[in-house]
Design goal:
Layout (H helix, E strand, L loop, with lengths): L1 E6 L2 H16 L3 E3 L5 E12 L8 E10 L15 E4 L6 E4 L3
Antiparallel strand pairs: 1-4, 2-3, 3-4, 5-6
Length: 98
């Protein structure tokens, strides 16, 4: 994602960008909508002074989020064999068919 600072002068633009970058540098992971975490990484900063005739100075801060991809599939618990509950009710006894 990109954060753009539009400011009336270069000093304000740079101070604004430093404040944002400093705050985001303390964030390692962001909680995503599904509850998983995404790793925040700084990519680059770009300065655009082409609009200085209009009294605007721009600086972009670009970040990326690395996030996990989860693939769910239903697999059988046991392919061959059987399982029974032991008399003590706590242990499962398995026998695999060779």
């Amino acid at each position: 994602f990109r954060i753009t600072c539009w400011c009336p002068d270069p000093a304000t633009r740079d101070a604004c960008a430093v404040a944002i970058d400093t705050a985001l540098a303390q964030v390692t992971f962001l909680t995503l909508a599904d509850g998983s975490g995404g790793r925040l990484r700084f990519l680059r900063s770009q300065v655009f002074d082409q609009s200085q005739d209009a009294g605007l100075y721009r600086r972009d801060l670009e970040y990326s989020i690395e996030y996990p991809t989860t693939v769910r599939t239903l697999l059988p618990a046991m392919i061959f064999g059987d399982a029974t509950l032991a008399p003590d009710g706590q242990h499962v006894v398995q026998s695999l068919l060779g």
